[in-house]
């Protein structure tokens, strides 16, 4: 289906954040996945290593992104390019929620520090 309406998006929740998936194989995308991330104030997601490149664009709010151990404070309008194999941690230390738009190729997996592998349903 070439048009995915908000009512067609699928919502997933993990690590205190909400992922609203729009572009997936289930909605007709053949190569890419894209979702809106909603990160509440005070949320700290665990560091994870990604198997595919991600493009992370912040629509609203501010976040502390730690990429391969280097912290970066980002604000609305900033884009972070996360290369495959990079380790990423996302934290919202602000008092307001943050909203992001993320795109990647299908098949993304994330590996936590303890070796746990996560196959996010919003990216597959």
Note the topology.
Blueprint: E1 10-14, E2 17-23, E3 32-39, E4 48-50, E5 54-60, E6 62-67, E7 70-75, E8 79-82, E9 87-91, E10 98-105, E11 110-112, E12 117-118
Antiparallel strand pairs: 1-2, 2-3, 3-10, 4-9, 4-11, 5-8, 5-10, 6-7, 6-9, 11-12
What does this structure look like?
The protein is mainly beta and 124 residues long. The chain contains no helices and twelve strands. The protein has strands at 10-14, 17-23, 32-39, 48-50, 54-60, 62-67, 70-75, 79-82, 87-91, 98-105, 110-112, 117-118. The strands form two sheets. A six-stranded antiparallel β-sheet has the order 1-2-3-10-5-8, with no helix packed on it. A hairpin with a 2-residue loop joins β1 (10-14) and β2 (17-23). The two termini are 16 Å apart. 23% of the residues are buried. The mean pLDDT is 95.
Radius of gyration: 14 Å
> What is the rounded distance between the termini?
16 Å
Low-confidence stretches: none
Strand order of the largest sheet: 1-2-3-10-5-8
| Principal-axes shape call | globular
Total strand segments: 12
The H/E string reads: EEEEEEEEEEEE
Looking at the chains present, what oligomeric state does this protein adopt?
single chain
Class from secondary-structure proportions: mainly beta
User: What is the arithmetic mean of pLDDT?
Assistant: 95
How much of the residues is beta strand, in percent? over 45%
**Portion of residues in helices?**
under 10%
Q: Major β-sheet, in short?
A: 6 strands, antiparallel
Number of helices: 0
